[in-house]
């Protein structure tokens, strides 16, 4: 039996829990903070230490690996504490870890460990908020709003991180991260679950149903984010081939990323109105076509025209994938598992793209992206079908 399109819930349903929307935006904003810091810290770490590009790249990717590992927390033994308690525990730890990173960054292994655990803390908060959003009213539109807010916040944080690093180097960058993390942690801690949402904590220790469908959903989500992000790491290299300078390319790409935040809300609306299958399928095709246009562009105009479907497809699909994960069980546990795993695709994208370019050149990027989108389309059918027998996994 196919998953049917759902009646569209009104904006009032989504806005009936503004505190949860703010908490979710803050948790996802923590993950985009890592994205905002990554490019500027990568360069600055090489300038202030003796590390090579590979070593610095592993350090800035470490938070995303920590985010991925946090999914195990909600798979084996999800915490039954309230979101406020989790915000104090993991949010407070995150602030401390970023402060330690600011002053101990010269020790590469120590910094790697600190940032890995920092990512774990962020992933735990993403999981906790995603589970609550999944069991609330209008999860599709809510995830769209949360992702849109996180993308918009990233645009601000990119500027803030750049200014902080320019003023105080790596120490300033991680100090900026500590301050922003504190603000986000306080925003999450300010939310108090309703009795209806609190009741879902009591069901968390029950065995988790494992079947083809949840595996397909999570695999498809990770694969999509990974393959759709292959070209991001080399956007400036591709722009340079068209004689676009860093300043011009950066400003135009920044504006495009900010505008793409609107696609998050559109994706949530389309998922609620038409169901996830066909909106996702259309975005898979748009992503593959967009990156082919970007890599093969012969002019700056063609380059930026290709970036529109490539970038918008990612933002469009993210809330759909999260809402689809939330539909896998009645208590939002799969959403808690899927959110950090899908987000970890940004780390895998950086790793895979480097290997692809090193072995086959920039021209191979759209080919690998297209292959990934084809595999996503294959997984889409079991991912959007229901009624598949399940087996129990001990929690």
**Helix/strand/pairing class, anyone?**
mainly alpha
String of helices and strands: HHHHHHHHEHHHHHHHHE
What's the shape?
globular
Binned strand content: under 5%
Helix content: over 70%
What does the average pLDDT come to? 82
Tell me the distance between the termini: 28 Å
Low-confidence segments: 1-14, 388-395
H/I helix tally: 16
Radius of gyration, CA atoms, in whole angstroms: 20 Å
Features:
disordered N terminus, 2 strands, mainly alpha, 395 residues, 16 helices, two-stranded antiparallel ribbon, disordered C terminus
How would you sum up this structure, described in words?
By secondary structure, the chain is mostly helical. α9 packs antiparallel against α13 and α9 (212-228) packs antiparallel against α16 (365-383). It has a two-stranded antiparallel sheet. The chain is globular, with a radius of gyration of 20 Å. The protein is built from 16 helices and 2 strands.
Describe the structure concisely for a colleague.
The chain has 395 residues and is mostly helical. 77% of the residues lie in helices and 2% in strands.
